[in-house]
Amino acid sequence: MQLVLEKRAERSTFIALASPVLAIALTLVTMSIFFLMLGKNPVTALYVYFIEPLTDSYTLMEIAVKASPLIMIAIGLSLCYLANVWNIGAEGQFLMGAVCGSYLAVVTNGTGAGPWVLPAMLVMGAFGGTLWAMIPALCKTRFGANEILTSLMLVYVADLILDYLVRGPWRDPKGPNFPTTASFDPVATVPTLMEFGRLHAGVLLTALLVVVAAIMLSRTIKGFEIRVVGAAPRAARFAGFSSEKLVIFTFAVSGALAGLAGIIEVAGPVGVLQPGISPGYGFTAIIVAFLGRLNPVGILVAGLFLALTFIGGEGAQISMKVPLDLTKVFQGILLFYVLACDSLILYRIRLVAAKPKAA
Amino acid sequence: MSDQGPVSSAARAPLLQAIGITKLYGSFRANDDVSIDLYPGEIHALLGENGAGKSTLVKTMYGLIQPSAGELRWLGETIELSGPSDARARGIAMVFQHFSLFDNLTVAENVALGLDGSETFAAMSARLAQVSRDYGLPLDLKREVWRLSVGERQRIEIVRALMQNPKLLILDEPTAVLTPQEADQLFTVLERLRGEGRALLYISHKLDEVKRLCDTATILRGGKKVATCNPRSETAASMARMMVGAEIGEVRASTARATTVPRLLIRDLSMAPDDPHGTYLRNISLEVFGGEILGIAGVAGNGQDELFAALSGERVSKHEDNVIIDGRATGNLSVTQRRKLGAAFVPEERLGHGTAPRMKLSENALLTGHAASHMVNHGFIDRPATLKAVDNTTKTFDVRKAKRDPEAASLSGGNLQKFIVGREILREPGVLVVSQPTWGVDAGAAAVIRQALIDLSSRGSAVLVISQDLDELAEISDRIAVMFHGTLSEPVVAADATREKLGLLMGGASPETASVEEVSHAVGA
């Protein structure tokens, strides 16, 4: 007996939907093994990770708060990946969006500026993310530099810029010398939606973006262009679509969305600019994008699921004393399985029996 | 090994028998109870339209796929081929239609890669030189493949197969890419192999070749065997009938008279290739008038791809008057802008260039239709309009498919080509540039496509056809020019263009010296 991969005549729609489910199932099995090795009861652990957060209205809101930036970033990334543009640096664009948007919050702090501050911060945030994304985009189109490397390396640059600013020029002059800006004024803060909890207006913006992206990808010529350039570059050139312009476009949009997510995070749940504002949203969003089939609605679901792992991981750390890094292990394994299961969309596995040779 | 030439098949036992081969893909029967006997010392033709199941059958014989039912017998003994290496070990070799060579490696390195590595490179090279000399297939072992012509590349594939000293050699459409003279040389080699008592299975669409070369022909249609016959006692027409299952309409000649104003004008076009292994275009000038079909002949790799890209606008020229469409200088315009001026293009590669393989036909209609066919409203795709375009093309060009809007890759070659050509022709372009319009397409589809090109020119359009198929060009063209090393010859009136004359131009002779005495010099051994 041997296993062979056989190409399918048409891509399987059923597997396209079933693949993420299968990947999650395989991940849960693998995680159970890890829990056993750590000496924990896997059933309890999986309950703490995946069920418990769903039983409480506060953690449900927290899931939405965590999912919001993940989804927003992943939607931008999905445009890149559909077009075969590999932006790995959304984390950096997220941070630079937070930095650029926060500039306004810092300079208007305590000046009694009007309600224009928050909208202007959002615009600045998106702009900052785009600016940061333009560096790898232009390096790719001008010099043929590999965008995977350049975008990834810029993450660490962005991280250090943020670090410098909050330890140096932007540090709260009245604060107790922590590396953080002063708390943002109310006009520089994203309003919350409820009396209690941290659910904020940014979540609504994310929901709106999911709808816009879904329409854009399936109904507009721009969405078509993105899909063709990624799926068949030569046919795209024949269609008159420029892959270079699309590199700029997709990087710009994904940078803007990551930057927007960054400033919303700072002006919303966090409330100040400080190091560690992101638990790796920009990287986790890569998993969200693929788990969600690079489809906006799929990304919505995948974003909520990954947010659940963040919340569940925190819960497990407290109640079961397992390391928080287990969440990252979990996310990595998940991405691995998603990519592996995806090959089943275009291929099928067949068992070929090696029959005994006839005499 | 016998060297007495063809031997009557009844007198000897078959080398390879396929008995009742059935191959299912889901519920689709690619092969349905096909039986075929291959005898040593015989050239056996395998005929059939695209999608008739020829590839499936030979892939089964080469161990690439396993049959769902039926069996193979090698010298009377039932065998299971677990893969191509198993087939090679028994003495079955195959030359594929699409070469699998590494451009940047030398001839000898390419051959070495295909062998099992049991001998040293030096010993292998010596044996390679010996085989290529013995069979009159000269090869410069140290040359990189990218420097070689298509004919030479095919020689590598054949010699590579012969290095295994096969008892059965399968050739998939070997003459599709050759000049007439190169094809003649190939036939000499094949006849010699037959004389050595080897069995050959020869897949072709060219019925005249089959009549000339082959001893037996098996004809497939719709996955089933229709007949096994002696091609010498059949006519090309009778074999075509068996392949298609119906009469193939003769292509009707054009009724148009060429206008006096050229609709497509190429003026002193020179362009460097963007691919380092590409061909420089040198001072190409040409006029194509409304109401005429101008054919461009030439062996692949002499600049046809580059010319197509320059005409379509996939590559933009610095000088706007290099390419003039209906009086408008378009050399510096994009492919979309050229389409808006009424030009249409059909590239050689159906999958990946003419269409996005994994996208639906409606999306592939949009691929070229977004420019000028009212399929986009304020940036939004008009889905009904794209579907209507698919339906119209399907109806007018008899495109056969499993459902209304399948993925492009799921169509057979002939049906996809009808779709691509139809997609452009239904826009009634003033200028149509089409490359290899019927390459690898079955006879029925080819006739439909050729007729459509003629009809389009009859309605006053200028049609430029780039093709390696001289029969096709002779059938549909009013004038024919030849590309060689990036230059284009003066066009000659098709009626005066003999195969010999075109063959010489394709080999690089200038028109003045293209006389019979030059054959050996121009084409080379």
Shape of chain A: globular
Shape of chain B: globular
Oligomer: heterodimer
Query: Which topology of the domain at 262-348 and 429-516 in chain B does CATH recognise?
Result: Rossmann fold
How many extended strands of chain A?
Answer: 2
* CATH architectural group of the domain at 262-348 and 429-516 in chain B: 3-Layer(aba) Sandwich
Under CATH, the homologous superfamily of the domain at 262-348 and 429-516 in chain B reads P-loop containing nucleotide triphosphate hydrolases
Low-confidence stretches of chain B: 1-10, 514-525
Q: Which value, in Å, is the CA radius of gyration of chain B?
A: 24 Å
Q: Total number of helical segments of chain A?
A: 13
Could you give a short account of the major beta sheet of chain A? 2 strands, antiparallel
Helical content of chain A stands at 55-70%
Structure notes:
The complex is a heterodimer of chains A (359) and B (525). With 359 residues, chain A is mostly helical. Chain A has helices at 13-37, 42-51, 57-82, 90-107, 117-143, 147-167, 202-219, 221-231, 233-239, 243-270, 281-291, 296-320, 325-346, and strands at 2-7, 347-352. In chain A, α3 packs across α8, α3 (57-82) runs antiparallel to α10 (243-270) and α11 packs across α12 (296-320). The longest helix of chain A has 28 residues, at 243-270. Among the domains of chain B are: 9-91 and 166-244, P-loop containing nucleotide triphosphate hydrolases (Rossmann fold, 3-Layer(aba) Sandwich); 262-348 and 429-516, P-loop containing nucleotide triphosphate hydrolases (Rossmann fold, 3-Layer(aba) Sandwich). Chain B has helices at 54-61, 84-90, 107-114, 121-134, 150-162, 180-195, 207-213, 236-244, 304-312, 335-340, 361-369, 383-397, 413-425, 443-458, 470-476, 499-506, 519-523, and strands spanning 16-25, 28-38, 42-48, 69-74, 77-79, 92-95, 168-172, 199-203, 216-221, 224-229, 262-271, 281-289, 293-297, 323-325, 328-329, 343-346, 376-377, 380-381, 431-435, 462-466, 479-484, 487-488, 492-493. In chain B, strands 13, 16, 19, 20, 21, 22 and 23 form a 7-stranded mixed sheet that branches. In chain B, α3 crosses α4, α11 (361-369) crosses α12 (383-397) and α12 packs across α13 (413-425). The two termini of chain B are 27 Å apart. The model of chain B is unreliable at 1-10 and 514-525 (pLDDT under 50).
